[in-house]
């Protein structure tokens, strides 16, 4: 696994915290699809049925919650910490831009929220408070104080900014009062939600005019480091100030968001697009741009390709793209490629919807990570995703191909049963049959007749059943141990597919009746045994040829007991004749294999036995004959 | 007949656990500790504690050990501190959790038993001086726990069939189930048994019995669940036909446990993720056989796609594990 560099990136899926995330996401995925299926299948459209886009949004939020939860649980030194954080950042942004946004809707609140959570300043603020807890009047002298205030302002956290500013002694800068006044009266999109956009815009412009007034008229002399002036300029949406504050922002997208939130708070997706086009902030950070920034640009441009291509390369797996594209598809926002595209030479590929491609890729990556047969639960997770690729039948084919290749040599019975059951559940009956065949052969090779029999009864394999029965009979005759026969005692009705097994079962009954019954009902059971034996002899070809001789010799042991009736004796004679004929036929055609199998060790003893059998039979028949004659 | 589920809480683990057991002296004494044996990716066993004062279900991992040689196939508690477990590579371990320093200590280990074949199940007898385990190769073996030498002995009889679980009925009697759907009663005092005392099976139902449980109050009643989802209750004193409960599980039954307080009801979990409580009530008579009873069902966990690997009862709480998730229901 480690040697194949291409696959080693999927090893991440076996990491414990990823396993937790994967299994939880799988549950959300399954629940979502199940809910949608039940909703679509129900005959009446209930009013309580939550509508589709809400469900998709909910599911996406659940995915995000899962990752956030995981970040909380794992320790800071965990190598996955960074990966999860990037994943979370991208996912949240995609949710805002692709799912939540509408062409005319405002993005301010969501993007500001995104900014706040992914660039959290709370730890810094708490630090300030805790290090200055004894003497709060010196709080404003802390080196990080102004940075916190500025960051609170750019992130739109006005309450926090005001709280921090309350620690600044007002004597030092009288202009502080007006600044605070401005902050207090700043129109907030959430509280003024009842206003229409136009009205809000008017309010905002009025407020910003006041900010400009404060900036130009007021006296900023008392302010040592111009911080208050900077704050005022930020409120007036002065572009230069934003550009100058580059160290605070760290990234161009944060700068862009805060600039837009003050210059045009009702910005929507097209405004965002235009700002990116103009490239005003991107230029500042030009030397630091990397792949991640490229992705953010594409997301802001509402370019869905970013999910399908760039994110896959960024995360080096399809975990995010599979889930997200599925949500987009269900939401109806993903357009299927045009199927009537005859000009395209890759027609086969383009007819598979892109979200299914990614789901299949993700499932295959999971399976590559789970290369050991004991990681069945990861397999089942992957299978869940493959099953949902309905448009293209390859989902089931992949499952079948994978299950076929799981090695069955070293795993335990229970695991093999589980794999068998999974194949059965997915309707892959041929595969289940072949699994059963391998397992029964494996059991037979280690001499476990019972296990082989249980697998055989499960898959009802006739030819192997016959071989198995013959093997068991051989074993029984060699060891004379009844436990071999007893293996069939619970199987009476189930083995009708194999006549040898049925014979074995009946033979067991006979043996029990003849040799293991208690003394009191011995006579009765012997009679039953005898009639059973004759029935077995009568059915043509039921008894395998090599055992006929032994069976007939068992007749020999019973003849003395006076248990055979007249007709039964004649049947016995007939079967002896048949046996003789067949033996002559075989010797003539020198079919040595079958002959050799039925040779007993001692030739002379055998001859004697035949002789005495004929003798006894003839005596009995004669006796019966005479009896009847006399009665007549 | 079907009542609503009770309060259900769950957390997610980062591995797939195969067995969960409460650590307590018996299933009636309430306890806050439980242990989990893993399957698949991690080969470990861990001990957890539930905080009874908290409202949320947030068990705390106290200690775990990661160097087992295979995944856990069976786990049984001896007391509130000690437990035994068997693994798929043919070993039996004896662990003790010391509350003082919160560590799991491996007291004893018997390994490489029976050619490394998977040990499917084991049980200890009441005095805890003997442990009997059964393997995939069809052998029944005994370990004498207190002696240092010559502790392992095997029954002469090899079943030629994969044996799935074993239970001690009385002090010297064991019930062994196999993958042909039979339950055999053996006398464990002698090692040269040629034949079992009794052999029980259902006519026409020969799928492998996966789990067994014995009634805490009456030693002669055992319940077995098999791969077809059928639960049969046998009375081992006679070889009459068993009482069959076969309604709700269409998939293999993973675990069967009797209710700790009333032996008239039992719980079962299966591959389809459902956990059912079967309540068989007497119809007014004090002592009626199992055949006369009506069965009421109560569902604790709905069927879903995730196999319920194992569960355990303690006092009024049930802990169940399915793929990566640990769930608890309370107020039985």
Automatic annotation (TrEMBL), chain A:
Q: Does the keyword Membrane apply?
A: yes
- GO BP, one example? mRNA export from nucleus
Alphabetized GO MF terms: structural constituent of nuclear pore
Q: Name one Pfam family in it.
A: Nucleopor_Nup85
| Places the protein is found | Nucleus, Nuclear pore complex
Which is a Gene Ontology cellular component entry for this protein? nuclear pore outer ring
Write out the entry's keywords from A to Z: Membrane, mRNA transport, Nuclear pore complex, Nucleus, Protein transport, Translocation, Transport
User: Quaternary structure per UniProt?
Assistant: Component of the nuclear pore complex (NPC).
Query: Could you tell me what this protein does?
Result: Functions as a component of the nuclear pore complex (NPC).
Name of the protein: Nuclear pore complex protein Nup85
UniProtKB/TrEMBL annotation, chain B:
Q: Where in the cell is it found?
A: Nucleus
Q: Name one Pfam family in it.
A: WD40
Major location (coarse) = nucleus
Q: Which domain of life is it from?
A: Eukaryota
Which InterPro entries does the entry mention? WD40/YVTN_repeat-like_dom_sf (IPR015943), WD40_repeat_CS (IPR019775), WD40_repeat_dom_sf (IPR036322), WD40_rpt (IPR001680)
The record's GO CC annotations read: nuclear pore outer ring
Q: Where are the WD repeats?
A: 246-288
Q: What is this protein called?
A: Nucleoporin Nup43
Q: What is the species listed in this Swiss-Prot or TrEMBL entry?
A: Brachionus plicatilis
């Amino acid at each position: 696994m480690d040697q194949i560099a291409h696959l080693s990136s999927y090893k991440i899926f076996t990491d414990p915290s990823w396993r937790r995330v994967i299994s939880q996401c799988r549950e959300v995925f399954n629940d979502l699809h199940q809910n949608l299926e039940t909703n679509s299948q129900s005959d009446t459209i209930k009013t309580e049925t939550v509508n589709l886009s809400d469900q998709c949004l909910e599911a996406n939020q659940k995915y995000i919650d899962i990752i956030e939860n995981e970040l909380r649980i794992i320790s800071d030194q965990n190598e996955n910490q960074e990966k999860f954080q990037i994943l979370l950042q991208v996912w949240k942004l995609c949710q805002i831009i692709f799912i939540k946004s509408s062409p005319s809707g405002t993005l301010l609140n969501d993007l500001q929220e995104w900014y706040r959570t992914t660039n959290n300043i709370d730890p810094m603020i708490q630090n300030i408070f805790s290090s200055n807890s004894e003497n709060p009047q010196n709080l404003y002298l802390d080196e990080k104080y102004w940075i916190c205030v500025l960051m609170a302002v750019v992130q739109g956290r006005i309450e926090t900014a005001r709280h921090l500013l309350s620690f600044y002694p007002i004597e030092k800068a009288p202009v502080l009062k007006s600044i605070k006044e401005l902050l207090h009266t700043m129109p907030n999109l959430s509280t003024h939600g009842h206003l229409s956009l136009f009205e809000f815009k008017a309010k905002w412009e009025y407020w910003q005019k006041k900010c400009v007034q404060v900036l130009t008229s007021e006296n900023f002399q008392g302010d040592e480091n111009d911080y208050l002036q900077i704050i005022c300029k930020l409120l007036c949406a002065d572009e230069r100030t934003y550009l100058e504050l580059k160290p605070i922002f760290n990234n161009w997208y944060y700068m862009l968001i805060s600039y837009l939130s003050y210059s045009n708070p009702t910005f929507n997706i097209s405004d965002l697009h235009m700002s990116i086009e103009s490239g005003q902030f991107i230029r500042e950070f030009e030397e630091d741009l990397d792949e991640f920034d490229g992705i953010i640009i594409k997301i802001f441009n509402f370019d869905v390709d970013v999910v399908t291509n760039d994110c896959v390369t960024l995360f080096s797996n399809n975990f995010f793209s599979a889930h997200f594209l599925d949500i987009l598809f269900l939401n109806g926002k993903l357009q299927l490629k045009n199927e009537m595209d005859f000009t395209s030479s890759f027609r086969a590929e383009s007819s598979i919807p892109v979200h299914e491609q990614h789901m299949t890729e993700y499932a295959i990556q999971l399976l590559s990570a789970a290369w050991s047969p004991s990681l069945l639960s990861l397999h089942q997770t992957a299978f869940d995703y493959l099953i949902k690729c309905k448009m293209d039948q390859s989902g089931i084919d992949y499952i079948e191909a994978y299950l076929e290749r799981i090695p069955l040599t070293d795993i335990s019975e229970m695991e093999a049963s589980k794999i068998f059951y999974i194949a059965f559940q997915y309707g892959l009956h041929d595969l289940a049959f072949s699994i059963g065949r391998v397992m029964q052969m494996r059991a037979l090779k280690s001499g476990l007749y019972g296990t082989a029999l249980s697998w055989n009864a499960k898959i009802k394999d006739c030819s192997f059943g016959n071989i198995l029965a013959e093997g068991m009979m051989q074993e029984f005759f060699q060891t004379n141990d009844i436990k071999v026969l007893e293996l069939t005692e619970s199987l009476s009705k189930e083995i009708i597919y194999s006549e040898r097994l049925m014979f074995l079962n009946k033979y067991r009954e006979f043996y029990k009746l003849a040799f293991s019954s208690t003394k009191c009902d011995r006579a009765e059971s012997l009679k039953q045994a005898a009639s059973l034996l004759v029935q077995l002899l009568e059915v043509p070809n039921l008894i395998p040829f090599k055992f006929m001789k032994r069976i007939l010799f068992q007749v020999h042991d019973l003849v003395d007991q006076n248990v055979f009736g007249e007709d039964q004796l004649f049947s016995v004679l007939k079967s002896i004749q048949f046996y003789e004929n067949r033996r002559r036929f075989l010797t003539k055609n020198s079919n040595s294999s079958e002959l050799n199998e039925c040779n007993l060790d001692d030739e002379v003893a055998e001859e004697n036995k035949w002789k005495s059998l004929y003798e006894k039979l003839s005596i009995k028949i004669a006796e019966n004959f005479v009896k009847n004659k006399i009665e007549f | 007949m079907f009542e609503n589920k009770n309060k259900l809480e769950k957390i997610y683990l980062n591995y797939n656990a195969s067995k969960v057991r409460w650590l307590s002296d018996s299933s009636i004494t309430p306890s806050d500790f439980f242990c989990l044996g893993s399957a698949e990716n991690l080969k470990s066993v861990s001990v957890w504690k539930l905080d009874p004062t908290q409202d949320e279900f947030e068990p705390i991992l106290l200690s775990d050990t990661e160097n087992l040689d295979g995944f856990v196939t069976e786990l049984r508690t001896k007391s509130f501190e000690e437990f035994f477990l068997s693994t798929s590579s043919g070993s039996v371990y004896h662990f003790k959790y010391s509350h003082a320093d919160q560590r799991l200590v491996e007291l004893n280990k018997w390994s490489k038993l029976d050619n490394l074949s998977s040990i499917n199940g084991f049980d200890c007898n009441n005095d805890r001086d003997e442990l009997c385990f059964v393997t995939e190769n069809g052998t029944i073996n005994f370990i004498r726990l207190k002696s240092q030498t010559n502790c392992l002995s095997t029954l002469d009889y090899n079943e030629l069939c994969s044996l799935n679980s074993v239970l001690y009925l009385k002090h010297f009697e064991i019930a062994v189930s196999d993958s042909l759907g039979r339950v055999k009663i053996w006398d464990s005092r002698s090692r040269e048994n040629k034949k079992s005392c009794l052999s029980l099976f259902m006519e026409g139902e020969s799928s492998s019995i996966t789990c067994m449980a014995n009634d805490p109050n009456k030693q002669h009643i055992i319940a077995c669940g098999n791969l077809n989802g059928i639960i049969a209750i046998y009375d081992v004193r006679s070889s009459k036909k068993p009482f069959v409960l076969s309604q709700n599980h269409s998939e293999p039954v993973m675990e069967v446990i009797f209710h700790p307080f009333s032996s008239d009801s039992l719980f079962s979990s299966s591959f389809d993720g459902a956990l059912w409580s079967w309540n068989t009530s007497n119809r007014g008579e004090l002592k009626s056989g199992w055949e006369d009873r009506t069965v009421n069902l109560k569902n604790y966990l709905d069927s879903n796609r995730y196999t319920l690997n194992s569960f355990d009862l303690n006092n009024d709480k049930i802990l169940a594990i399915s793929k990566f998730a640990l769930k608890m229901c309370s107020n039985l």
